[in-house]
Automatic annotation (TrEMBL):
<dbReference type="Pfam" id="PF00875">
    <property type="entry name" value="DNA_photolyase"/>
</dbReference>
<dbReference type="GO" id="GO:0003904">
    <property type="term" value="F:deoxyribodipyrimidine photo-lyase activity"/>
</dbReference>
<dbReference type="InterPro" id="IPR002081">
    <property type="entry name" value="Cryptochrome/DNA_photolyase_1"/>
</dbReference>
<dbReference type="InterPro" id="IPR018394">
    <property type="entry name" value="DNA_photolyase_1_CS_C"/>
</dbReference>
<dbReference type="InterPro" id="IPR005101">
    <property type="entry name" value="Cryptochr/Photolyase_FAD-bd"/>
</dbReference>
<keyword id="KW-0285">Flavoprotein</keyword>
<comment type="similarity">
    <text>Belongs to the DNA photolyase family.</text>
</comment>
<keyword id="KW-0274">FAD</keyword>
<dbReference type="InterPro" id="IPR036155">
    <property type="entry name" value="Crypto/Photolyase_N_sf"/>
</dbReference>
<feature type="domain" description="Photolyase/cryptochrome alpha/beta">
    <location>
        <begin position="4"/>
        <end position="134"/>
    </location>
</feature>
<keyword id="KW-0157">Chromophore</keyword>
<dbReference type="InterPro" id="IPR006050">
    <property type="entry name" value="DNA_photolyase_N"/>
</dbReference>
<dbReference type="Pfam" id="PF03441">
    <property type="entry name" value="FAD_binding_7"/>
</dbReference>
<dbReference type="InterPro" id="IPR036134">
    <property type="entry name" value="Crypto/Photolyase_FAD-like_sf"/>
</dbReference>
<keyword id="KW-0456">Lyase</keyword>
<protein>
    <submittedName>
        <fullName>Cryptochrome/photolyase family protein</fullName>
        <ecNumber>4.1.99.3</ecNumber>
    </submittedName>
</protein>
<dbReference type="InterPro" id="IPR014729">
    <property type="entry name" value="Rossmann-like_a/b/a_fold"/>
</dbReference>
Length: 435
């Protein structure tokens, strides 16, 4: 006799607390078998095998396993194509249903649709829950039923619609886990990756940072940001817990959480933004796409101390302060006239907190081509940004300590680059209007 079980498929929700899909699975009437799948279709695209994100997931799974074992269960972790995993599980168990939390990225949607078709062919329902957002694709719409493409009215409607029930924690009946013998997780090496300097700790909400987040967040030397991007990305913290905390402590940080959902619904409604500008006329820009300039930007060797400090911080740690992200993105797209998609891809490769929707939305914002973008004529002057946000050069001295001894000419002079960008952008937009 095969055990009749409910399978819960962990993905971007690596926690036992306040997990909507897991909560529903635990109330399904059958013992819950938790699983996680290292998908080769995703991992094979990561060319650098020293990837802190994979190590983060691996360590988060170890913490999750410890919590599950303490409650009498365990997790089964696979390194295989998801469809093949479910075919094997179907042989080993009588599966009553499969539960998971919804994922909104285009490739994840395709994956889930393929799995659901196969499960349906075996009369096994796939039940998904809303977990990583407060409001989904069609929860916040204009009066005429169309999606918002400007943040401010979206944010206003989001806050108007928010009720206590939207950020109430899920009930977790963990006594309904399938009793399992503890099984060692696959090693990082067995899935093709190296151990990194990443050290996973369960994320915490820190009132000391969030209470004055609005006043301090723009100063990179203060490092006064939550660093919770990676935790939200992989679901080691609940977005509901974050929203509850923001409502009590800081409206500015709440706004950042709403930006995250704004970009997610943009990606859901307009999936073409993955490859195209939200405003199609910006795809007429005659980008220079100079390979040497791009390599200098990547390496932090542009001759602009703040830009170079940011890129070196990214390359060394996988993190860059948000104010500096805006400066380096503006510099690449406006000063160097390099296609925003080049910068977006580089950030996708390097950022620990990489999130497709936010990365895409913020790069299009910087390039002026996004749904709610900085106008094309807004071009950050790196020197002025330094005076405003790092006047004592404290951040620059940490990440670009040799900046004063460098005699190399900047890759481009600011005034020249600004005038060139204005001309090229205007020409593209005028051409679009004429055409």
């Amino acid at each position: 006799m095969k055990d009749k079980v409910t399978v819960f498929w962990f993905r971007r929700d690596l926690r036992l607390s306040d997990n909507k899909g897991l909560s529903a699975a635990l109330q399904s009437g059958f013992p819950v078998l938790p699983i996680f799948i290292f998908d080769p279709n995703i991992l094979e695209k990561l060319t650098d095998k020293y990837d802190r994100r994979v190590d983060y997931i691996h360590q988060a799974l170890q913490a999750l396993q410890k919590d599950l074992v303490a409650k009498g269960g365990d997790i089964r972790v696979f390194h295989a194509d998801p469809l093949e995993v479910f075919k094997q599980l179907h042989k080993d168990y009588e599966i009553a249903s499969v539960y998971g939390n919804r994922d909104y990225e285009p490739e994840a949607i395709k994956r889930d649709e393929a799995v659901e078709r196969w499960l349906n062919s075996k009369d096994i329902p796939l039940v998904t829950a809303k977990d990583q957002v407060i409001f989904e694709r069609n929860d916040i719409l204009k009066a005429d039923g169309t999606p918002y493409s400007v943040y401010t009215p979206y944010s206003r409607k989001w806050k108007e619609k928010l009720e206590d029930k939207h950020h109430r924690a899920a009930i977790m009946k963990t006594d309904h886990l399938l009793p399992l013998d503890k099984k060692q997780l696959p090693s990082l090496a067995s899935i093709g990756f190296e151990k990194t300097d990443m050290r996973y700790e369960k994320p915490q909400l820190d009132a000391g940072i969030i209470d004055d987040y609005g006043e301090q967040r723009d100063f990179p030397a203060k490092d006064h940001t939550t660093r919770l991007g990676i935790a939200l990305r992989f679901g080691t913290i609940s977005v509901r817990a974050c929203v509850q905390f923001a409502l009590k402590h800081n409206a500015t940080w709440l706004g950042e959480l709403i930006w995250r959902e704004f970009f997610m619904q943009i990606l859901a409604h307009f999936p073409q933004v993955v490859k195209q500008s939200f405003k199609p006329q910006y795809d007429h820009i005659a980008w220079r796409n100079d390979e040497d300039d791009f390599q200098r930007w990547c390496a932090g060797e542009t001759g602009y101390p703040l830009v170079d400090a940011g890129m070196r911080q990214l390359n060394e740690t996988g993190f860059m302060h948000n104010r500096v992200r805006m400066v380096v993105a503006s510099f690449l797209t406006k000063h160097l006239l390099i296609d925003w998609r080049w910068g977006e891809a580089y950030f996708a490769e390097k950022l620990l907190d990489y999130e497709l929707s936010s990365n895409n939305g913020n790069w299009q914002w910087a390039a002026g081509c996004g749904c709610d973008a900085a106008p094309y004529f807004r071009i950050f002057n790196p020197s002025e940004q330094t005076k405003k946000f790092d006047k004592d050069l404290a951040y620059i001295k940490v990440w670009n300590p040799d900046f004063e001894s460098l005699t190399k000419e900047p890759v481009v002079k600011h005034e020249f680059a600004r005038e060139r960008a204005l001309k090229i952008y205007k020409k593209a937009l005028d051409k679009n209007r004429e055409g």
